[in-house]
Amino acid sequence: MSDHEDLRAGFHLAQFNVGTLRFPLEDPRTADFVAALDPVNALADGAPGFVWRLVEEGQADATGLRPAGDDVIINYSVWESQEALWDFVYRTAHLETMRRRREWFQRHVEAHLVLWWIPAGYVPTVDEALERLALLRAQGPSPRAFTFSSSYTAAEAAEAERAEAERSQAEAERAEAEPAA
Asked: d(Cα 171, Cα 3) in Å, to the nearest integer?
């Protein structure tokens, strides 16, 4: 096993995406999307490389959670690798749902999907996901927040996180050393 593979084995890929509904979930025009939720989620749950997905307590999915706005639903999951996520998204029945997304969701001007590496076994929070999406929207792709078309490795992400921690520590030490005015 190479150093790169060894490092990647210690990380999983988090993915978070938002969709602004064109119509409420109860609207008949959204019925096909709602009907696809359980089968697509079951497909994800059984997909090779799947680790975790966010579900609302007592529910089968997270469509009732609205941390990004009243008409915005979220999808949040963790995968063993970018390849595993890609295969699920683009090489399973999930693709048909993606092809029909304009029927149910508004077109986003800003980024609506963000990916980032997390330590294996860590369960990320919704606040973290919203922060990563905001980072991608504000600064563009980086090892800390990226997309399929602008991806980074787990090694690049680990280095970026280490550099950010060092920068934050140095700033804190400088602030402590400055005399009070």
From this structure: 31
